Amino acid sequence: MPNDNILHPTSAVRARQPWFPSGRPGVGALPEHAAHTGLGTWWTDHPLRPRAAAVSCAGYAVLAGDPCATVPGDLAHLAYCYAVAPDSFLPVLGSAFVGIVPWERMIWAYRDPVPIARPAPAVTVRPLALADAPAVRALGPDLAWIAESWGGPAGLAASGRGWGTFRDGRLLSLACTFFAGSRHEDVAVATLPEERGQGVGSACLRALCRDIITRGRIPSWTCSRDNHPSRRLASKSGFQLIHTYVHYALGAPVTGSRPLAEAARP
Nearest Cα to 179, choosing from 65, 18, 20? Predict the structure, then answer.
């Protein structure tokens, strides 16, 4: 019997949005982000009468539906992703990948606006423009993850969803919307190691949050429970904890199928 499961272009997300409710914070905004940007991968177990679905982008995945409609080999393309799924999916995930590692996460929402930090006079805080793509790329491979949800440095720079702190034309820190939903925008910050602790990350993060609020949306922040520096930055920047959940770091596919995702995200 032929296998009817299919990888759809992300435009198909628009037609199947009931699988994933709109307006969710954190990684819950991933399906809306994929639908809006056309980035990522959409999978269903059947092209016309789906019972299970998964959408992935930038190394993260969200699954929904009936896990009984899924066989382990169907999910090989999610290898090395961080997956959010109902507990009912755990048996099929356990059979699909060499290892799955649970990771407790926290979602914060922006509640208490605080004054934008004022870095040193030589530092400029401003929104990114397309011409800043080389500066985003110059952050280096260790911080390249921050542009992945926009397809790379050029996509992020042109998105209108990023702010940076600059000194003498060099990008020191970048804050951006990582997943843009209809109600929440989940944000991320990347700062050069030698510039951390100087307030440059806080400055561009708070400017980004003000921009998101101007668009009529709510900034959200997602981090590991064990990431204490990230939790401190969220707290001092006006975020309040609203939810905890568990996602799963997926290993190699047991089938040996070539995965679409090549590496886990920090």
Answer: 20
Q: How far is CA 105 from the centre of its chain?
A: 13
Q: For residue 195, give every residue at least 6 positions away whose Cβ sits within 8 Å of its Cβ, in sequence order, or none.
A: 172, 173, 201
**Cα four-point dihedral sign 148, 151, 153, 156:** negative
What's the pLDDT tens digit per position in 102-125?
999 999 999 977 665 666 678 999
- This prediction has a pTM of 0.89
One DSSP character per residue, 177-202 reads: EEEE-SSEEEEEEEE-GGGTTSSHHH
Q: Which of 58, 100, 59, 106 is nearest to 82 (CA)?
A: 59
Span 243-265, pLDDT tens digits: 999 999 999 999 654 444 433 33
Give me 87's structure tokens: 């507990």
